[in-house]
Specification:
- The chain has helices at residues 3-10, 45-53; strands at 12-22, 27-39, 65-73, 80-92, 95-100, 110-116, 122-127, 131-141, 144-153, 159-171.
- The protein has 174 residues and is mainly β.
- It has a ten-stranded antiparallel β-barrel with strand order 1-2-3-4-5-6-7-8-9-10.
């Protein structure tokens, strides 16, 4: 699997059940959310802006997409919601950079390093100002995927948060 196939398989609406262990707070959190992943074109203004901000040529990108989410947490009565633009920049069929206008561990723009393993697992490592994130996503079948996320200290030595999500496709895009 390459990044284009991974993104193509991810397009759609997903219902997510995530459990997160916040080790710093000794707290367990359960989050239910809806995630929508939609393909963008390379000439979309937000894609162009993100590429320009990172000095990346539009000729080098593939399969840009937008991910939006909204849901409820048992830890916070406010709705959990957000959106980000993601742009893969392959360096080889199984490796590259992932540009994000908003990060996972910190709400700042970020550039991560991704790889795809032989079994099709997408692995993303992103360093932020005060933290580091490691995410792994794999498909159980075309309509079920799993995601593991670790938020680590900026040095990458301590785990602050560990979470697991199971995501079920709600709508198949054609």
């Amino acid at each position: 699997m390459d990044i284009q196939e991974f993104v193509e398989r991810s397009i759609g609406c997903w219902r997510s059940q995530r459990s997160a262990h916040h080790l710093a707070f000794s707290h367990f959190e359960a989050i239910q959310s809806e995630i929508e992943i939609v393909a963008l074109t390379a000439d979309a203004p937000e894609v162009i802006a993100l590429c320009q901000a990172n000095c990346v040529s539009l000729d080098t990108i593939v399969s840009p997409f937008q991910m939006s989410w909204q849901g409820q947490s048992d830890w916070d009565e406010n709705e959990v919601k957000g959106s980000c633009i993601l742009v893969p920049v392959p360096e080889s069929p199984q490796r590259g950079k992932l540009l994000r206008d908003q990060g996972y561990a910190e709400t700042i723009a970020a550039v991560g390093d991704y790889s795809l393993t032989e079994d099709g697992t997408f692995v993303l490592n992103t360093a932020y100002d005060r933290a580091a994130a490691e995410e792994k996503i794999w498909f159980v079948n075309p309509n079920v995927r799993c995601r593991v996320s670790l938020i680590k200290t900026s040095a990458g030595t301590g785990v602050v948060t560990a979470s697991f999500s199971s995501e079920i496709r709600q709508e198949v895009k054609h």
